[in-house]
Amino acid sequence: MNMLVDGEWRTDAYQSTNEDGEFDRQDTTFRDRIEDDPDARFQPEAGRYHLYVSLACPWAHRTLLVRALKGLTDAISVDVVDPYRGDDGWQFTPEKEGCTEDSLYGADYLRELYVKADPDATCRVTVPVLWDKQEETIVNNESEEILRMLDTAFDGVAASDVDLYPDGYQDEVDRIIDDIYDPINNGVYRAGFANTQDAYDDAVEELFDALDHWDSVLEDQRYLAGDRLTEADICMFTTLVRFDEVYHTHFQCNHQFIREYDNLWPYLRDLYQTPGVAETVDMDHITEHYYTTHPDVSPKRIIPVGPDPDFEAAHDRDELPGGVPEDLLATV
Ligand SMILES: N[C@@H](CCC(=O)N[C@@H](CS)C(=O)NCC(=O)O)C(=O)O
């Protein structure tokens, strides 16, 4: 697979499975932090930061969701790459529906920004990227860390007081984000990119065990961490919303659709209908990306018709304790 090696683009450098045929996701490399501290190198400021995203990517989608829910859309600008990722990696194709140019530098490919940030970069060129316009560099390209920064470091800047990492819930939120990563968020990729039957079998078994578990947790609580919408729900949402259209078919996670679950399905609709969320979901970019970008998995690049789940249908979960924070309803 493609990656940068010493700042040069290579199409043969990155092996995505290990010797057992298991998908091996590489660690991200830019890990600086924006901190609300006068001595910090990267401080929260309106207009200083920029996100490079793909609307198809579940990891980038997390950052767009927090940006929307926190009321940071005016403070943090965004550019959107083409959903199709070819041999040259993520590309800017402003002529295509839902895509933008690189509004900062007019780059053709996202990798140019990585090399600008580090001329000797040796890494995958992934989205999301949190870019600092002041220092002209990448602050961070790990979604979990970006979403935490947008949620917790921008209090003086964000238009909304919504707190997705509230006191009293933090340990639980961290535990859930950690618990769902391997079997669910990364689990669908482990199933889809497995190169052996054993690797696939292990991944789907863990995936559906975990989905069953969370389906039962959600029977009598509205959100993953209890009665409040938190970062954990953001992390779960971006996988669930892609599941029936993409992961079920493309990654062969076809034991069950999300819309067949008693609680996960209404939970997914509840999140989708939370103010600010639906606008971040672009199913055309999602389906185009997956079905056309992985020739090993889907060589004919045909985008299937899909079940078109009705995310707008009533969910009735407002009968459970807790709910959408008032300030979110007011600001989004
Ligand atoms: N751990 C990273 C993963 C990001 C990631 O893998 N993004 C994918 C898109 S869904 C990507 O850009 N892949 C390009 C590549 O691996 O070359 C995060 O959570 O931000």
From TrEMBL:
<dbReference type="InterPro" id="IPR016639">
    <property type="entry name" value="GST_Omega/GSH"/>
</dbReference>
<feature type="site" description="Lowers pKa of active site Cys">
    <location>
        <position position="290"/>
    </location>
</feature>
<dbReference type="GO" id="GO:0004364">
    <property type="term" value="F:glutathione transferase activity"/>
</dbReference>
<dbReference type="InterPro" id="IPR040079">
    <property type="entry name" value="Glutathione_S-Trfase"/>
</dbReference>
<feature type="binding site">
    <location>
        <begin position="124"/>
        <end position="127"/>
    </location>
    <ligand>
        <name>glutathione</name>
    </ligand>
</feature>
<feature type="site" description="Lowers pKa of active site Cys">
    <location>
        <position position="247"/>
    </location>
</feature>
<feature type="binding site">
    <location>
        <position position="90"/>
    </location>
    <ligand>
        <name>glutathione</name>
    </ligand>
</feature>
<feature type="region of interest" description="Disordered">
    <location>
        <begin position="308"/>
        <end position="332"/>
    </location>
</feature>
<feature type="region of interest" description="Disordered">
    <location>
        <begin position="1"/>
        <end position="26"/>
    </location>
</feature>
<protein>
    <submittedName>
        <fullName>Glutathione-dependent reductase</fullName>
    </submittedName>
</protein>
<dbReference type="Pfam" id="PF13409">
    <property type="entry name" value="GST_N_2"/>
</dbReference>
<dbReference type="InterPro" id="IPR036282">
    <property type="entry name" value="Glutathione-S-Trfase_C_sf"/>
</dbReference>
<dbReference type="GO" id="GO:0005737">
    <property type="term" value="C:cytoplasm"/>
</dbReference>
<feature type="domain" description="GST C-terminal">
    <location>
        <begin position="163"/>
        <end position="311"/>
    </location>
</feature>
<dbReference type="Pfam" id="PF13410">
    <property type="entry name" value="GST_C_2"/>
</dbReference>
<feature type="active site" description="Nucleophile">
    <location>
        <position position="57"/>
    </location>
</feature>
<feature type="binding site">
    <location>
        <begin position="142"/>
        <end position="143"/>
    </location>
    <ligand>
        <name>glutathione</name>
    </ligand>
</feature>
<feature type="active site" description="Proton donor/acceptor">
    <location>
        <position position="189"/>
    </location>
</feature>
<dbReference type="InterPro" id="IPR004045">
    <property type="entry name" value="Glutathione_S-Trfase_N"/>
</dbReference>
<dbReference type="InterPro" id="IPR047047">
    <property type="entry name" value="GST_Omega-like_C"/>
</dbReference>
<dbReference type="InterPro" id="IPR010987">
    <property type="entry name" value="Glutathione-S-Trfase_C-like"/>
</dbReference>
<dbReference type="InterPro" id="IPR036249">
    <property type="entry name" value="Thioredoxin-like_sf"/>
</dbReference>
